[in-house]
């Protein structure tokens, strides 16, 4: 497929262009992109022996579904350039706002949970907490680096992560300024658990559907590039804000951001971790230990999107505890188009993407999948209610008993060998 300039295919869109049809799926007027969400054009070529990892999401063509998640791995030009050089499908920069002066970080701001006893320096890191805020670098500096990256890597996908206070004019100014750098899309941070909630920033928006709808309306009336809304897991039903974001004009949602947590208490000093001058504050929890929680949240969003939205027009980006290709495959099996990695990069380096790609290809070969779309969402059909599980198990037991009874009554004419083999199959 020929490369196209995104500016040639975007069309106007407003928050009012979306409405919920309670009897069917959400209907949408033309949005900012003219492409469907699909795997590579070679995805249906079963004759291909090599799995194709490329995806096109909301008009953004990526060599693979692996995306640097917003955070320290996207802090500046140098590290984002390294991510592109290593082969990541896309990079989401660390979240920016108009006034970096209000962002004051502390040290230390990380704490780790290891597989051994809490506080052990020897066990494998399975949990990671941070109390780091959004970018404290001047916006002008970040914008200059965005522009430089797009000039040097015009065919690579660079996504700006943004967050602002509850102020329409400020949101509009921030969107305008980041778009002028040539970024390919915007991810809106509605989910940082310690993102200055007193200013109605971060999770303070993502946890309030009325506020989220209003702010999404401002954003989507202004933005001319695809917009993803990043969801907070610190809410009872994550599908509700995800639904609001999509109804309000966002082309996609990303989930999950970090989970509000207290990493632990130092049993020698009796102080919480990470400890800053003897004190701490709850922070965001990530790494391997959050992976099952993230899968559950993504499953919930995917089921909602499948039942209420046209999945060809909207995207889902899975985040949480990804360190292997198998971790990524699980998100894709639940319906994710892309998979973001942040803490995993901090722990294993930018070269992790090569391992992820190799392992994901191994998984695809094992199942004879040739494209991401071959198995995206394939596992959603196997989730049901507990009541249905009980009914299914009772029916299966009834059928096994009936088969076993039938085999025993037919023993005289089937032969002992056949009966023994069949009983073995039933018992297994």
UniProtKB/TrEMBL annotation:
EC number annotated for this UniProt entry: 1.3.1.2
SUPFAM superfamilies the UniProt entry points to: FMN-linked oxidoreductases
GO MF term (any one): NADP binding
Keywords: Oxidoreductase
Protein's UniProt name: dihydropyrimidine dehydrogenase (NADP(+))
Coiled coil: none
Record Pfam families: DHO_dh (PF01180)
Organism: Arachis duranensis
Record-level GO cellular component terms: cytoplasm
Transmembrane domains' residue ranges: none
Domain annotation Dihydroorotate dehydrogenase catalytic: ranges: 53-364
GO BP annotation list: beta-alanine biosynthetic process; thymine catabolic process; uracil catabolic process
Signal peptide: none
UniProt cross-references to PANTHER family, sorted A to Z: DIHYDROPYRIMIDINE DEHYDROGENASE [NADP(+)]
Pathway entry: Amino-acid biosynthesis; beta-alanine biosynthesis
Enzyme class: oxidoreductase
């Amino acid at each position: 497929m020929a490369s196209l300039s995104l500016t040639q295919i975007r069309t106007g869109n407003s928050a009012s262009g979306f409405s919920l049809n309670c009897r069917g799926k959400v209907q949408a007027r033309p949005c900012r992109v003219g492409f469907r969400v699909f795997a590579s054009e070679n995805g249906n070529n079963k004759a291909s022996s090599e799995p194709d990892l490329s995806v096109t999401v909301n008009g953004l063509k990526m060599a693979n579904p692996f995306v640097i998640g917003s955070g320290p791995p996207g802090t500046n030009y140098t590290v984002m350039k390294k991510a592109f050089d290593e082969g990541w499908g896309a990079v989401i920069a660390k979240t920016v706002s108009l006034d970096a002066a209000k962002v004051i970080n502390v040290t230390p701001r990380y704490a780790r949970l290891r597989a051994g006893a809490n506080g052990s320096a020897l066990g494998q890191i399975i949990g990671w907490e941070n109390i780091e805020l959004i970018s404290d670098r001047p916006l002008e500096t970040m914008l200059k680096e965005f522009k430089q990256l797009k000039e040097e890597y015009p065919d690579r996908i660079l996504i700006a992560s943004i967050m602002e206070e509850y102020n329409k004019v400020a949101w509009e100014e921030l969107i305008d300024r980041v778009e002028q750098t040539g970024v390919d899309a915007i991810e809106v941070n509605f989910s940082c658990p310690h993102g200055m909630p007193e200013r109605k920033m971060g999770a303070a928006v993502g946890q309030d559907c009325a506020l989220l709808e209003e702010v999404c309306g401002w954003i989507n009336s202004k933005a001319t590039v695809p917009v993803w809304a990043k969801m907070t897991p610190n809410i009872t039903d994550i599908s509700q804000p995800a639904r609001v974001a999509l109804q309000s004009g966002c082309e996609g949602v990303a989930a999950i951001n970090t989970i509000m947590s207290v990493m632990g208490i130092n049993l020698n000093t009796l102080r919480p971790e990470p400890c800053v001058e003897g004190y701490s504050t709850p922070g965001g929890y990530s790494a391997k230990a959050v992976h099952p929680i993230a899968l559950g949240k993504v499953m919930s969003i995917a089921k909602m999107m499948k039942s209420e939205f046209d999945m060809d027009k909207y995207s889902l980006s899975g985040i949480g505890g990804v360190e292997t290709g198998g971790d990524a495959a699980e998100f894709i099996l639940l319906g994710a188009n892309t998979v973001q990695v942040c803490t995993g990069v901090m722990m294993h380096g930018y070269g992790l993407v090569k391992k992820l790609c190799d392992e994901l290809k191994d998984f695809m070969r094992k199942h004879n999948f040739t494209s991401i779309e071959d198995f995206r969402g394939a596992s959603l059909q196997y989730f049901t209610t507990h009541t249905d599980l009980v009914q299914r198990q009772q029916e299966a037991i009834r059928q096994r008993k009936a088969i076993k009874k039938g085999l025993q009554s037919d023993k005289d004419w089937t032969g002992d060998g056949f009966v023994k083999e069949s009983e073995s199959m039933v018992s297994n």
